[in-house]
Amino acid sequence: MSGLPPNWRPAQDELKNKTILITGATEGIGRAVALACARLGAEVLLTGRNEAALESVYDTILNEGGRTPGLIPLDLRITQHEPYDELAETLLAEGLAIDGLVHNAGVLGERRALSQTSPESWQEVLQVNITATFLLTRALMPLLERASLASIVLTSSGVGRRGKAFWGAYAVSKFATEGYMQVLADELGGTSHIRVNSLNPGAVNTRMRRAAYPGEPPDSNPLPEALTDKWIYLLSDASASIHGKALSAQG
Ligand code: NAP
């Protein structure tokens, strides 16, 4: 059970008038979700650390006739809160509201036993995969509150729902993501028009999957483009009543 309607398809202008910020929009799932959002009429705010890759997504959106995206270089390894707060202040000053926030960026870290994991790798994975999620959401809350019906989508993983040997800090960070989602959902429930859910993509043919499973034929898994409707559903008003759920993009 994915918890999502299996046959839902977006209308052509499903995300018209929405502004959606996506982390890790340079490649893989984040890039595909950003392009899909733009094709459905959203203004997308592209964030990532690789500026050339961000510009390439920006150009693709413009070439396809989409709304001019925002381009926001942001390295989620930054541990201080100030850059996240400054970004939010800039967007607030521009009069923006954020209707959708997709926490997608992630790193795999070391695929080895916890006892063999280097402290540096542990800290980077926890920083990028969950602490940055906290810092960015905290900073963007006033922009989410400005939207009439905002949706936060956190990216989970199967190993964030059931622990598995040698998935180390990555699995722990995804368990933390689920915990973060539950706590935030409970805080927001009943008092806010902001909803928050987690989505496990399942196996998807991206750089991260290929690194995690080097012996697997890459084309045995779907490309991100085949799954973007799941993210679109959670970002659209069609999912207005879905809040605090741990969902899966693939069965
Ligand atoms: P991917 O192709 O490796 O993309 C990861 C994205 O995160 C890239 O855009 C990358 O940008 C960005 N990123 C990494 N470190 C960053 C940093 N310090 N600051 C800013 N951005 C950073 O991986 P993916 O498969 O699309 O994964 C997307 C999400 O899905 C992740 O949260 C992952 O855990 C989750 N997931 C994926 C699968 C799967 O099978 N693919 C399964 C379960 C969960 P750079 O170019 O700058 O590195």
Strand content: 5-15%
Mean pLDDT score = 97
What's the order of the H and E elements? EHEHEHEHEHEHHE
**Cα separation of the termini:** 5 Å
Which structural class do you get from the secondary structure elements? alpha/beta
Q: Helicity range of the residues?
A: 25-40%
Number of folding domains? 1
**Under the CATH scheme, which class?**
Alpha Beta
How many strands appear in the DSSP assignment? Answer: 7
CATH fold title: Rossmann fold
What ligands does this structure carry? Answer: NADP nicotinamide-adenine-dinucleotide phosphate
**Helical stretch tally:** 7
Task: Give unreliable regions as ranges.
Answer: none
Label the CATH architecture: 3-Layer(aba) Sandwich
Evaluate the radius of gyration.
Answer: 17 Å
